[in-house]
């Protein structure tokens, strides 16, 4: 559906009006793009090689194909996990080093194909080259936790579970509005999700905020998800303008509430820091140390 351009440079816009933050502000290009997808394509000629070879070699080529496909899947999942790790200030290293395993399986798969087509020496060369080149192309997985110094592990685990649940609700909202087929609504949902994710990052940075934000991250987001599903069902059937207006009004209210709560969390964190500084200054003064 066509959408009227309404920026500040449009005839109805104001040159002095500030641009509203876009839904993709701060977003980065996904790493899991064409380069990763090509890993699923280039082993496919092994199918032809397998079914034009004797039975033993056919089995070897098919094993090589399976190993390379598994390596491609692990690499893609590892790249996505690395993106999620980089997007957060506080994060745990992935439990399974998928990209490293992908490098090993790539080398093993090429080695099996090399043994089937050439011999043992060539197979060793293929193993080493495949694993090394894959490692250089995609890099290793994160091997250490980030921002976890002095943070209670139990609290961070609770935050991680709450954030993962909130992300599931946001993904369900995105899937629902896609069924509605209205680009304007999809953009509005994306802007709301950007505000929600700002709260999620705030809670990740200070797990003590989880108690205050839990209702927003669970109950309110669950309600927003259910409302999105119901709106998509109605709007996909009859393009109801009333349902669209009600849904957008709900998003406005929710965005205001989430934004206000995030600002309150940030102010509370600043107040806690101010208290800590004042307590430290008083203690230094009692011990005879002058502070500026």
What can you tell me about this protein's structure?
The structure is a single chain. The chain has about 290 residues and is mostly helical. The protein has 2 domains: about 35-140, no CATH class; about 155-285. It has 9 helices and no strands. It has helices spanning about 35-40, 45-50, 55-85, 100-115, 120-140, 155-180, 185-205, 210-240, 240-285. Helix 4 runs antiparallel to helix 5. The protein starts with about 35 loop residues before the first helix and ends in a 6-residue tail after the last helix. Residues about 10-20 have low confidence and may be disordered.
Q: How would a textbook summarize the main sheet?
A: none
Q: Specify Rg, calculated over alpha carbons.
A: 26 Å
Total DSSP E strands: 0
Give the overall shape.
Answer: flat
The average pLDDT value, as a whole number, equals 81
| Fraction in beta strands | under 5%
What is the terminal-to-terminal distance? 62 Å
Uncertain segments = 12-21
What helical percentage do the residues reach?
over 70%
Query: Helix tally?
Result: 9
Would you tell me the structural class of the helices and strands? mainly alpha
How many domains would you count in the coordinates? Answer: 2
Listing every helix as H and every strand as E from the N terminus to the C terminus, the arrangement reads: HHHHHHHHH
